[in-house]
Design goal:
By secondary structure, the protein is α+β, with helices and mostly antiparallel strands. It contains three helices and two strands; from the N terminus they run H-E-E-H-H.
Length: about 100
């Protein structure tokens, strides 16, 4: 599951002051992508059946005001990977994005 927001991004901190944003790892690139796409934007979140994972990370589907589905873009860019073991609403859609 892109847990639903952030697949392989463990414990992401979306803090513009955080120096780790320049990290070249997938995690760092995904956080940088999120910041660039959402900075100054109004966003809204939708939730699946689980709101938090076992590490107390918030799980959500993130959309911009213009209905851009941020989770999908993160997967399409190869910045997050779908958790194939967990069931969630957008799993098939996300797996398809990941394959292409």
């Amino acid at each position: 599951m892109v847990e639903p927001l952030i697949a392989s991004m463990k414990n992401p901190t979306i803090n513009p002051e955080e120096p780790k944003i320049e990290n070249k790892s997938v995690n760092g690139q995904a956080i940088k992508f999120l910041l660039e796409k959402t900075k100054g934007q109004k966003v809204f979140m939708k939730f699946d059946s689980r709101k938090y994972d076992e590490h107390n990370n918030l799980l959500c589907y993130l959309y911009l005001k213009n209905k851009t589905f941020i989770n999908a873009h993160i997967i399409k860019e190869g910045l997050a990977y779908v958790d194939g073991l967990t069931d969630f609403k957008c799993k098939d859609k996300f797996l398809n994005f990941q394959r292409h």
